[in-house]
Amino acid sequence: SLEEQHDLVVQALAEPRLFAGCGEAMIDNIAQEATLQYVPPSQDLQLSDEIPMLIVLQGAVSVSVGNSHEVSLGVRSVVNVAGMLGLYEAAEQFKPRGARGFDEASRGTVIWKEDEEGMEMSHLDIACLTNLCPHLSLQHAAGSVGQRSGWVSMNVKADKTSGATFAAVPFDVVKRYMTPLFERNMQRLIDNYFHIMRHSVLPGAPPEVAWAAANVAESLDFKAGQILVEADSLEDPDSLIVIESGTADVERRLYPTAGADAEPKVLGHLGPGAIIGDICFLNAQVPRAATVRARSNVKALKLPPGGLLEVLRTFPGTTACFGARLRDTTALLQESLARPADMLSKLHFFAECDRGFLRAVGSICERRVCLCGEVIKEESSTDDTLRVMEFGQVRVEKKDAGFSALTGVDTVLGERRFFGLPVTRASASFTVATPLTMILVIRKQSFISLLDNYPNEQKHLRQLHEFQTTDSGNAKREHLSAHLPILENCSSEFIAAITGSIRTVTFKPKQTILEQNAVDAGSMYILKGGQANISVNGQVVKQVFSGESFGELAILGFVTRRSASVWATRLCHCLEILRAAFVEALAEHPEEQERFEELSKQHGVHVKSTKWPMFEHAPSTFLSLLNLYARRQVLANGEWISTSSEPLPVDAAVMVFRGEIHMTTESGEKKVITEGQCFNEQVLLGLPVKPGTETMKPFNCEAQILTQDIFKKIVIECANHEQLEQAIKNEMAVKAEEELGFSRGGWNVLKFSGLFRAGSSENFLLSLRSKLDACLYQPGEIMFEQKQPGFHMFFLIQGTAVNEGDGQMKGPKPQILSPGEVFGEALILGSDNSYCNTLRAQSACMTQALSRVAFSEALEEFPEEKAKYDHLLKASPKLDLPSLLKRQSKAFNDASIEFINIVCHLADDIFFAPGEEIMTHGQASKLGETCMYVLLSGSANVQAEFGDELAKLKSGDVIGEGGALGISDFRAATVKVFTDDIAHCVRLHGLSIEYATQVFPDEFEAMTRIYDQRTHANLDAERSRKLWLQDSVIPALLQCRIFKGFPLNIVHDIAEQLLQTTYEKGQTICQVGQSADSMIVLLQGKAELRSHEGDLVGHLTDGAVIGETAVLGVYPWRTAGIRTVRKSHVVFVPASLIFKILEAPGARSAREAFLQLEASRRQQVEQGWPLTCLPLQVNPQDICVRAIALHADHFNFATGDMWSSSQCREHHFWIFVKGKAILTIGHREILLLSPESSQLLPEASLVEYEASFTARTTCKAYRLNVSDVLLATNNSRLKWFKDFEQQIKDSSERIRQKLQGAKMIGRMQKQNRSLSKGSISSTGSYTSQMKIAYAPDQIYESHWLWPSKTSSPVVNHTASQPKLLSAPFQSWKTPSSQNRRRANTSDVQTKSEMPRRQGPTKAWE
């Protein structure tokens, strides 16, 4: 009837996604305007854009694609939707043209890292890509080429017996009634259609097939960083995912070392058109070979396996579109499946048969490859062939009921008829559902003929008739499991509980099954077919064949990380035994636990017992009850449910035994709970769960979940429940410390108190740490009250508390205490016996408490620590604080006691470790926030900005009044505790001080005046320091060779941070061999310079600088000892300070000069300059030569540069190595200085005769200190040194004679000029002037010489007077004391052994 036809159209249109949600009105209107068309039997229908959408109302249509059999589409089937939408013509651009099949279809882009970066990829890396995207692999890109041109053929015709009646719906009718929702549906499906066509997901598939695939596809959007597919995941492993736009990275997870987290290795990039997945392995449960992560925002199309199988069921010939891939897969299966005999041995009815018999049966077996849509066995068939499914799936269908189920690997078909068991006919038909299926076929007639030769096996098979038992999936798996070594002797019930959840998993060749060091689900595998390699650290140690197993240690819990890698060498079919099922089975059969523990001992496996951290020392009774009532759970990946989909409680404590749990904290921080860790333990004490608990996501996780109800139930049966609750609090405290950045169970929390920052030993601190007890306080709870007796100190580690003072004063604001605060320190010392304030928890607070008894026990255990606390332990209880302030502080002398009482409100004890700063110069100060202190015991000093000591403080002194009272915006000085004492102070808080100034404003004004007077005094001290820097320090630094070329502002910056150190007469400034990282400048005083032997080698006076080589980093040791002769003032210039200043942006020129000097000094040490420039035949590697070179100052003189006597020091001399210079007195040229003539020049002569030298050409010369030479050659007996001494003697004598002669001539000329001007002879003429002759090859040569000057007299050696070294050097000292200059010697950097050397040694080098 028309009404029935209308209803059929409505029902048919309600099913396709095109009309989903469009409403009954639209569909009803379309149905009313549909026209009827009848097509006679067997008449072809040419689907195209010219004909409307057709809905079968009566009869059927037969559809065939390619060479496949026909599939009948019955009533309510819809065809030609693509034609109605005009998509046939639009698809022409994607039609294959010429020799282009699946293998060479354009599929988008894959960028291989090997091509991109030139890096060599391992075979496993390449396999990850090829297995992940086989349609794009290099292997298939070069495969066989099909000769298809155009679409795969498709025939549609009316049923050959009844024909077909259609309801025709043209697009005009649809357009007339379509809704916005229909338009969105249509556009989405058309987009899917074109993506499938464009990217050749089904290359060559006709438009009708592509439209069917578009209807099952889903659009997905991924943001950058999101995962498209997860490696090794069996969650939706078989869907095809096509990238439409964007790029993604292919990652392989690696575990470089045991215990390390996974490190992703990027193997390549996928671009638009890339297809993830393999259509030939639909529903084969192949884990993803690698992770694909969106590199940019990615749009993708997902084709789920169920939808694709439905398309293949309707159009089975579609497999022709990927025929080449099917052939490759078939070849893989043929070489990887187990041998027929091995396959048969796993079947229940062949389990007890002889191996030879099974091989004989295997020889008559036939392996068949069946493609999608092929009927394996018809319903009502009497076929008695035995068939065993080895790969793929088949559809089970009944004529009356239609589709029944999908059956997979291990399914046995026809066993009852094959073995002659009672049966009439097949109860259903079996049709191949997947692209291909591999079936093992045994024909009954061949089997019976073979059985005649094996009478013993006939008896076994007759039992099948007696018991009428057949094989089934589970029975077969129980049989396999029972023969595993680890499950031998286990009860059948236990094995049945495990095998119920066994699943079949397939791995492609070179696909990684297990990764060494990985934390995974802990499954165990039985290899049914194929072959795999086991490798350790990259080396193959074993091959695994069909019937063998691996992964036993993980499933038993003996290891948490895989001890080896396993990867398939052939296509592997495995049975996976899940650890989740194993754990559940153990829970149901606890009697098996002992057997597995014994097994671990037999195999020598040390099983690390993972326990709740807080219950590590709990009694065995409690632990037994805990494991009884709180069972272990294996959790589903990514969801807070069990693997059986059972919801798990959130308000419970959780202990992770394996794997990880990820969660997001309240602040948005990602947190990972790993093996051996627990969280939410506070729930057991009735506290709420932590924020972020609802975000928990487990991964490969096994955990124990303990609710408060179960905990209470267990605790009731235990006697020591207080200890258990304290253990939970201690665990909570440890985690609170971890949140503060401390290591678990470490002693860092003790450092909150100055009592334990005093350089205590680690063992002492660990002993104290073990004696801490956690305390928990609820919001509003009083922690302790003022004057409450107590014997504990507390460390606040979590939450906030309020200091309420005496709890009575209402005016001042309460003081808020945060984690890190300490209170009650005086109580454990015994200097107080009650708490000084009332503390109340503002939020939930966690503290660690240390008792006086525990502290005393620790001191008894470590008596060497007791000395640090003696002065504190002996101190009497602190005096009345208001009276002390009024008496000791000038600021409070005239203040009323009422004012002081308010100031002392909220006061508490605080301790400072030796050397710590109580307050720091320049700290911002503000009334109401800044504290002041009263020193009760210990000592401290007051320092100016740059460390100058202003005053020393003693017990009772008040610190920081100005800043605390708000009189000063910044701290005017630094107060630092002495280095040998712990300081005990009372801290007066800014809140109380502010309130006091509000109540008593007049008294505040009086204090301001007192502070102003003190400020003026401090300013005077600052002015004195500036003068000191300007007059003493900066001039001394500018004389240093190291600062030559430094701008004045840079030198000023360095000088500003220097402190003066004063040494009394006879004190040692430094010793020989002492490590050095600073330069010493003697500002005022006098000191001796001594060698390692104690020999006096010189004196240091005002302005002397030593240690430049240490600052340069060339030689970081003192090689001379310095002892004061009289009171001396010294500054140390650290190398770190110089480097810090030179790093400033404006110090570029100074930095370059410094680096140039350092490089020059290193080079001259390496070359042995300047001694190697003298005619001495010295070795540059000679230890003495290098020591002298270390301290020689290198100068480059430009033409015209002059060195005057005012720049000279009498203990220095010059060595000219290049160029020419002229020695002059006044304007008179005396001698040529050059390497060829006079190469050595003593500065003592220049000083004595007020001479100088000027560069005639560019010159290179070295300036040496006599003391440096003496120190370097002390006690040496080297031959070259005697020659060096002789050269010095000769040069000294020659230059002295030249200078004396020139001076005498100058005096005579002066006399002659005087005579010529003022005296006339008796003859009336002036006396003639003396004329001096100059030889052509020299500047000046006198025809007479003064008598040579002998060396200085030898000093009488007495016990009280050390001898002077090296007599030739003494001749350089001027006899005139009035011309002597200050000594300025550099520090010769040698080790303490240096003065005793007998020649070059390896140790010195």
Textual characterization of the structure:
The protein is α+β, with helices and mostly antiparallel strands. The protein is 31% helix and 24% strand. The protein has 43 helices and 67 strands. The strands form 16 sheets. Strands 54, 55, 56, 57, 58 and 59 form a six-stranded antiparallel beta sheet that branches. A five-stranded antiparallel beta sheet has the order 6-13-12-15-10. A hairpin with a 5-residue loop joins β34 (653-664) and β35 (670-674). α33 packs across α34. The radius of gyration is 49 Å and the shape is elongated.
Terminal CA distance: 114 Å
SS-derived structural category: alpha+beta
Mean pLDDT: 80
Tally the helices: what do you get?
Answer: 43
Number of strands: 67
Task: Give a brief rundown of this model.
With 1405 residues, the protein is α+β, with helices and mostly antiparallel strands. It contains 43 helices and 67 strands. The model is unreliable at 99-108, 137-147, 468-475 and 1319-1405 (pLDDT under 50).
Features of this protein?
1405 residues; alpha+beta; five-stranded antiparallel β-sheet; six-stranded antiparallel β-sheet; single chain; elongated
SSE diagram, text form:
Elements: H1 2-14, H2 24-33, E1 35-39, E2 53-59, E3 61-65, E4 71-73, E5 78-79, H3 81-84, H4 87-90, E6 110-112, H5 113-117, H6 123-132, H7 138-141, E7 154-158, E8 164-169, H8 171-177, H9 180-198, H10 207-216, E9 218-222, E10 227-229, E11 240-245, E12 248-254, E13 263-270, E14 275-276, E15 291-294, E16 298-303, H11 305-314, H12 323-336, H13 340-345, H14 355-363, E17 366-371, E18 375-377, E19 386-391, E20 394-398, E21 402-407, E22 412-413, H15 415-418, E23 429-432, E24 436-442, H16 444-451, H17 455-467, H18 473-482, H19 492-499, E25 503-507, E26 512-514, E27 524-529, E28 532-536, E29 539-544, E30 549-550, H20 552-555, E31 565-568, E32 572-577, H21 579-588, H22 593-602, H23 620-629, E33 632-634, E34 653-664, E35 670-674, E36 678-679, E37 697-706, H24 708-716, H25 721-739, H26 762-770, E38 773-777, E39 782-784, E40 792-798, E41 801-803, E42 815-817, E43 822-823, H27 825-829, E44 839-841, E45 845-851, H28 852-861, H29 863-873, H30 881-888, H31 897-903, E46 908-912, E47 917-919, E48 932-937, E49 940-943, ...
Helix pairs in contact: 1-2, 9-10, 18-19, 19-21, 23-24, 28-29, 30-31, 31-33, 33-34, 34-35, 38-39
